[in-house]
């Protein structure tokens, strides 16, 4: 008999016995009443007493006041429970939506002077406030760390990218636990918290199945997260998405596009939450990957701008400045600066190169248009469910336009990064498909200068071109001003305290037993209602040895030359009240101000963990960091093994190594991928197709293969790929062995240096495929046994390092 039925029968038996007892009591009371009617009142009192006694044994006792410990007796009837209600936000508390764009220059949005159509973003500005003096940290990870914590990026432990732990407090590349994130604070105050998109504040080496997870989104305050860790992603076939802590593959849909997917997930998160708890506020963090490279856009979005950039970047940025003046964003006295470092005047670009260079900007504009469309979808969804009016929307970019596409642009951003730039003539052959799946492009530096109009320099620099970014705040219920411009000085660290003040939430002084650092930002909430409200007047800047300090209208800045003595860097001084885009250096005129601001910068550097300065190229830092910490000589895999994220997978590129695979080819079922790492943009794969064994390295547009002429036999096989370097990391040869016999070999024109964002998979090729010879994951049809990888991890010699630097064309 089921347990619940037994209990039910027992309860029925108890009830019947109680009913009999009650009848007997009533009979006695009646007889007693006949004998002495005056006792009638006592009968009523007796019944009330019985009812009260019965209720005590059935009803849950009233809970104690919140914060009081439970009172425990022998039974629940003699006890009082503690209050178990969760923390609730104050009725009417606003929702918060933070929208972070990646590498979007201040002049790339319509309301900031762009010709790119951004009606949704422009609509936010018309509904709220548009800031002209918003500043960031010049790089993605640092800006995100500052926004999430209200700390300067070095204080937050992310003075550089979240790829390397340098061992110094300001450069751990992992978000500090001495500052609760905005999500942690709001969640504990009664908000639901959601993240979609880029994270990039946990150290890359922790993004594996074994963690540690302590800095993953769902451990830093987000209830739900659909995210990726690194710099960017493949827009058509992302391979490093996580749902919480579980790696997931995007749907196999020819129309898939990651910005659409992220927006769909954001909308679903909010609508689900409102269905369950209609009155609970939410914090939604939407971190789109765009317009960070790779510049990938839907063909229809790209082609909507066809021909619009044929006039070149000089003409386009001049028109942008004129629109900025008409919009009241820039004074009429502002002049267009010379092109920034690395960019060439359009008139000097060879005529035969201009068509493909214009094409890159068409792709970029199409990408931004898609972002705007998705922002519009999100806002429309909030409007439809009645939440838009009391939702604070904060939209900003993390740094200025990126110069990482080189002077001429590239159809594959990994090619120049890995020392093999694509000639413009080769890139031009991809004109028709540029920006589509199969390309991984980035625009030329001239267009990056255009993105940052009217400022000088780019992302990674502390001149205003690197740190001046768009900021829009819209809150229909809380901001009465509509479509107004704010010229107040605001830094990204100010947004954290601003949002807490707007939501009426206090940041705890201790969190999870950890004493919290003081918030270093300053709330700018008063600017929501008053254009002349005072904001911060001073701020330091530093990234990669580039430095700046602002005091009121005085701005001191140094562009560091890699490898040079920091103390010999020339400092430039600008009076922003007369020269808002840093054109007229007055350092020689005001040496006393230069000295004062240099001293202030050093004081801030000592206070906020900026030192020691490190100007080494990112590739050199990463290579050295991996040699010291991440290289592993031996790997053994017993399939099935989940996809490994790129930063925790075997590092074999550029090293002598062997890959030994035990497998069994079944009758008529012996094709498929054995092991793959990366994608066609930068990757390698070992597979069997039509019975023939193939090893392939790809760095689009270059592909090198080693193919076995004879078909493999069926049955159990031992397959080996062996790579022997003659001069690391680019010169070497590869060979294939079957059952101990060499069956093919090849001398590489150039060995692949590293892989793309895609991870490491066994038995299939997940994400974007390495080879164009097969479609989809191409899973191995047979049985995959033990896979052993052995790597020669001997340290690079000084000669090898010098050869590497020269081959890569690095400025050190």
What does this 3D model show about the protein?
By secondary structure, the protein is an alpha+beta fold. β13 and β14 (546-551) form a beta hairpin. The protein is globular, with a radius of gyration of 32 Å. The chain starts with a helix and ends with a helix. 48% of the residues are buried.
**How far is it from the N-terminal to the C-terminal residue, by CA?**
80 Å
**Widest sheet, order of strands:** 6-5-4-3-7-1-8-9-2-10
What is the molecular shape? globular
What share of the residues does DSSP label as strand, in percent?
A: 15-25%
Helix fraction, binned, reads 25-40%
Largest beta-sheet characterization: 10 strands, mixed
Number of strands: 27
Number of helices: 17
Spans of at least 5 consecutive residues whose pLDDT stays below 50 are 1-18, 26-44
Q: How large is the radius of gyration?
A: 32 Å
- Mean pLDDT across all amino acids: 93
Structural class: alpha+beta
Which features characterize this protein?
single chain, 812 residues, alpha+beta, six-stranded antiparallel β-sheet, 17 helices, globular, disordered N terminus
What topology emerges from the helices and strands here?
Elements: H1 3-35, H2 40-56, E1 95-101, H3 119-127, E2 129-135, H4 140-149, H5 182-188, E3 192-198, E4 224-228, E5 241-243, E6 246-248, H6 258-276, E7 282-287, H7 299-303, H8 313-326, H9 351-384, E8 391-397, H10 414-417, H11 424-428, H12 445-451, H13 464-467, E9 471-474, E10 484-491, H14 495-503, E11 510-511, E12 514-515, E13 538-543, E14 546-551, E15 554-558, E16 572-575, H15 591-607, H16 618-630, E17 634-637, E18 657-665, E19 672-679, E20 682-689, E21 692-699, E22 702-707, E23 715-727, E24 731-738, E25 741-747, E26 760-762, E27 783-791, H17 798-808
Parallel strand pairs: 1-7, 1-8, 2-10, 3-4, 3-7
Antiparallel strand pairs: 2-9, 4-5, 5-6, 8-9, 11-12, 13-14, 14-15, 15-16, 17-27, 18-23, 18-27, 19-20, 19-26, 20-21, 21-22, 23-24, 24-25
Helix pairs in contact: 6-9, 8-12
């Amino acid at each position: 008999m089921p347990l619940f039925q037994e209990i039910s029968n027992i309860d029925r038996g108890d009830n019947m016995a109680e009913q009999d007892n009650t009848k007997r009591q009533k009979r006695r009371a009646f007889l007693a009443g006949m004998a002495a009617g005056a006792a009638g009142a006592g009968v009523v009192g007796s019944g009330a007493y019985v009812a009260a006694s019965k209720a005590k044994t059935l009803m849950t006792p009233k809970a104690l006041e919140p914060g009081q410990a439970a009172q425990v007796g022998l039974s629940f009837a003699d006890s009082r429970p503690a209050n178990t209600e969760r923390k609730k936000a104050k009725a009417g508390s606003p929702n918060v939506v933070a929208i972070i764009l990646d590498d979007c220059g201040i002049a790339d949005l319509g309301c900031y002077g762009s010709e790119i159509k951004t009606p949704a973003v422009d609509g936010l500005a018309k509904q709220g406030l548009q800031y002209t003096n918003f500043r960031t940290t010049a790089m993605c990870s640092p800006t995100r760390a500052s926004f999430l914590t209200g700390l300067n990026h070095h204080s937050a432990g992310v003075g550089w990218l979240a790829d390397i732990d340098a061992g110094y407090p300001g450069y751990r590349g992992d978000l500090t636990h001495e500052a609760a994130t905005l999500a942690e604070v709001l969640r504990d105050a009664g908000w639901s918290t959601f993240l979609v998109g880029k994270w990039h504040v946990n150290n890359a080496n922790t993004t594996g199945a074994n963690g540690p997870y302590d800095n993953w989104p769902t451990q830093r305050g987000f209830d739900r997260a659909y995210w990726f860790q690194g710099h960017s992603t493949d827009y058509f076939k992302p391979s490093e998405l996580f749902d919480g802590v579980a790696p997931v593959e995007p749907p196999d849909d020819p129309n898939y596009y990651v910005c659409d997917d992220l927006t769909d997930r954001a909308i679903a998160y909010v609508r689900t939450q409102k269905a369950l708890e209609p009155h609970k506020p939410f914090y939604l963090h939407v971190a789109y990957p765009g317009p960070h490279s790779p510049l990938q856009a839907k063909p229809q979005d790209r082609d909507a701008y066809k021909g619009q950039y044929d006039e070149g970047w000089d003409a386009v940025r001049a028109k942008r400045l004129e629109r900025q003046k008409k919009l009241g964003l820039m004074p009429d006295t502002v002049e267009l600066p010379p092109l920034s470092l690395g960019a060439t005047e359009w008139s000097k670009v060879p005529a035969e190169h201009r068509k493909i260079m214009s094409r890159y900007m068409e792709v970029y504009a199409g990408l931004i248009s898609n972002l705007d469309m998705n922002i519009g979808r999100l806002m429309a969804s909030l409007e439809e469910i009645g939440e838009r009016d009391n939702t604070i929307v904060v939209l900003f970019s993390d740094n200025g336009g990126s110069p990482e596409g080189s002077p001429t642009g590239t159809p594959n951003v990994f090619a120049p990064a890995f020392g093999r730039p694509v000639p413009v003539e080769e890139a031009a052959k991809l004109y028709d498909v540029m920006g589509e799946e199969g390309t991984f492009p980035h625009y030329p530096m001239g267009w990056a200068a255009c993105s940052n109009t009217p400022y000088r320099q780019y992302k990674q620099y502390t001149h205003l071109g690197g740190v001046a970014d768009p900021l829009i705040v819209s809150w229909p219920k809380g901001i009465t001003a509509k479509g107004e411009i704010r010229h107040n000085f605001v830094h990204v660290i100010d947004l954290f305290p601003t949002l807490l003040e707007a939501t009426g939430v206090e940041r705890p002084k201790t969190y999870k037993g950890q004493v919290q650092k003081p918030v270093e930002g300053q709330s700018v909430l008063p600017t929501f209602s008053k254009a002349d409200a005072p904001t911060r007047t001073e701020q330091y800047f530093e990234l990669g040895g580039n430095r700046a300090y602002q005091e009121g209208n005085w701005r001191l800045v140094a562009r560091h030359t890699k490898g040079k003595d920091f103390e010999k860097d020339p400092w430039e001084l600008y009076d922003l009240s007369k020269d808002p885009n840093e054109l007229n250096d007055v350092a020689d005129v005001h040496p006393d101000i230069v000295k004062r601001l240099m001293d202030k910068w050093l004081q801030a550097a000592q206070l906020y963990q900026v030192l020691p300065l490190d100007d080494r190229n990112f590739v050199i830092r990463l290579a050295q960091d991996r040699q010291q910490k991440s290289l592993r000589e031996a790997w053994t895999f017993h399939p099935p093994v989940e996809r490994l994220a790129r930063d925790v997978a075997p590092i074999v590129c550029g090293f002598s190594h062997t890959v030994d695979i035990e497998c069994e080819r079944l009758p008529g079922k012996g094709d498929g991928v054995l092991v793959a790492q990366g994608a066609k943009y930068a990757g390698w794969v070992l597979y069997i197709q039509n019975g023939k064994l193939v090893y392939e390295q790809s760095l689009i547009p270059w592909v090198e293969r080693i193919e076995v002429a004879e078909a493999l036999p069926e049955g159990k096989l031992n397959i080996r790929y062996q790579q022997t370097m003659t001069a690391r990391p680019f010169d070497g040869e590869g060979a294939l062995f079957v059952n101990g016999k060499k069956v093919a070999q090849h001398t590489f024109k150039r060995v692949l240096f590293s892989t793309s964002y895609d991870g490491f998979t066994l038995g299939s090729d997940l994400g974007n495929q390495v080879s164009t010879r097969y479609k989809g994951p191409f899973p191995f049809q047979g049985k995959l046994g033990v896979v052993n990888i052995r790597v020669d991890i001997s340290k690079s010699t000084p000669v090898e390092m010098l050869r590497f630097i020269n081959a890569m064309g690095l400025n050190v």
